Amino acid sequence: MSDRIRFENVSKFYGEVLGVNGVSLSIGPGITSLVGPNGSGKTTLMNLMTGLLRPTQGRVEVLGIAPSDAERLFRIVGYCAQWDSFPKGVTGYQFIRDYLSLHGFKGEGAHKLAWAALERVDLTAAGDRKVAGYSKGMRQRVRLAQALAHRPSVLVLDEPLNGLDPMARAETIDLFESLGRQGMYVIISSHILEEVDRISDSVVLMASGYVVAEGNIPQVRQEVKDHPVQVLVRCSSPSLLASRVFIQDHVVEAKISNDGRGLLVRTRDAEEFYKMLNHVAADGVVDIETVAPADEDVNSIYQYLIGSSGDGGAQ
Amino acid sequence: MSSLLQQPWTTWLSQIAAILRMDLRKSFFARRGALVYLLALAPALLIVLHAMVDHHSGMDPASHVGEDTQIMAVIVQVYYIRFAVFFGCMGIFTWLLRGEIVEKTLHYYLLTPIRREVLAAGKFFSGAIAASAIFGGGIVLSFALMYGHIGAAGRAYVFDGAGLSQLGAYLLATVMACVGYGSVFFALSLVFKNPIVPAALLMGWETISGILPSLLQKLTITYYLKQLTPLDTPSTGLMALFTVVAQPLPKAVAVLGLLLLSAVVVACAGLGMRRMQISYSVD
Ligand SMILES: Nc1ncnc2c1ncn2[C@@H]1O[C@H](COP(=O)(O)OP(=O)(O)OP(=O)(O)O)[C@@H](O)[C@H]1O
Ligand SMILES: [Mg+2]
Hints:
The structure holds two protein chains of two kinds.
Chain A: E1 5-14, E2 17-27, E3 30-35, H1 42-49, E4 57-62, H2 70-76, E5 77-80, H3 92-102, H4 107-120, H5 136-148, E6 154-157, H6 166-181, E7 185-190, H7 193-196, E8 202-207, E9 210-215, H8 217-226, E10 229-235, H9 238-246, E11 251-256, E12 262-267, H10 270-283, E13 288-293, H11 296-306
Parallel strand pairs in A: 3-7, 3-8, 5-6, 6-7
Antiparallel strand pairs in A: 1-2, 1-4, 8-9, 10-12, 10-13, 11-12
Helix pairs in contact in A: 3-4, 3-5, 4-5
Chain B: H1 2-5, H2 9-29, H3 33-53, H4 61-93, H5 95-102, H6 106-110, H7 116-148, H8 152-159, H9 163-188, H10 196-207, H11 214-217, H12 221-228, H13 251-274
Helix pairs in contact in B: 2-7, 3-4, 3-7, 4-7, 4-9, 7-9, 7-13, 9-12, 9-13, 12-13
């Protein structure tokens, strides 16, 4: 039996729409954060991990278990999904207790587990009230309690800090840290790196369905900084420009665009590149029409993920 | 065979029992259930109304019992079995999974250590129990009112005559109809979102049951139900449309046949659920 959560070249398409593409990951114990903007594929990865979705391509394995094998998987996995929905008419306690019965817990044992879970999220006082009357933060917490009630060793939590007030947020983060220290696999998603980087043993940065960086926080920040930038230059003579560009050592790649009227350049140092371009233009060798970052969205995502403060939350 | 015996049946059964505990609540008290209750109780209401206006003045009690027995047979075999149970099952069984999808709660089941086939079976049983109880209850009520309002002759027919065994046969046929129609609606609800489509398909299939080759007849619910209805209903005029001449089978064989057919259909639904993915947004 493997001791990691593995994605091997996993892709998921919703019809034509890309969910995630070519994801390979190996996640160990401790807290792992999936971070990325809306639509980057965090939820998709979590649903693939728990068998709610099947990959279009590739393979997923959770500690050696295929996600389609629910009977084995959910002995060790708990998943707090993104949907803020509940069965009609249940109290917080009943909600947790009902699904515990499907885990095979009965009578006193189930009763104790349900209340212990409510206690972990500080909801014992509201346990006998109907969930329909809960606040958003309470609903978020009772769903968290439901996911961990059967004492799983892998806990998958989709945006678990959403809707929590600062107090509940701090308590929930403490809970994650203590679970992580106990050797559990805690996987959480978030839009904001700074929200989770302090507690994460490892971070997976996602953008537009791809894993763009992975590792501990310093590694990820370095990786993001070194990420080459792509620039499209429209000019009178792309091949002439290419010969000038190639001699620069910060340029990783330069190729003539498909329509033959532009040059696509990948560089590690955008600033240097723009300076050089100004020289070329001043020399008058090549007529430069437009210069535009070719992958603006990816760049802005990096900026967004890493935060403008530079080394904000890094240790 | 031995591998079948080695399966964790006790786990599966206790999971099914857990689903029943959680679901019966929903099936009986769903707000959408009002229409199903109306379908089940309509004959009882009509009988009460009828009893209030018609006092059978000067009629011989024996012929009275005979007439009411004939009416009761039509109520059960034509109204209940062909119409009310059919549409009641449509309402109940197509909502078993669709309801969980619409309310975004299906994933809670799928995130527990339960086989999808077992989940399908549990859901199906909860629908079958609810439908049987609601329609069986409706029939018992109609039956009691029907014979109750003719006094001593009615009581004698029920308790000393053929009455009770007829009621038993009606209930058996009703339960079987719930199981049979229910299984098909349950399975088709995995394929079609709109319950009208499975209803039209099944209605069409059941209607042509009588003219199908005998092998295909055995794949219709009507074929088995026909064997389970104890009284002949008049087969002239409009009634002839509903009356299927099937080759006779012993009742036990008919019950087993229908259970087998339903089990196969529910198993297919279970396999269908295996392939199911959760993305409520597009459903
Ligand atoms: N059911 C679906 N049908 C079609 N496309 C979908 C579906 N679910 C997700 N997608 C698409 O897959 C991509 C990844 O979505 P996903 O929900 O995994 O992102 P996310 O990182 O969880 O976003 P968010 O931060 O908004 O929760 C998006 O482009 C989204 O539009
Ligand atoms: Mg998401």
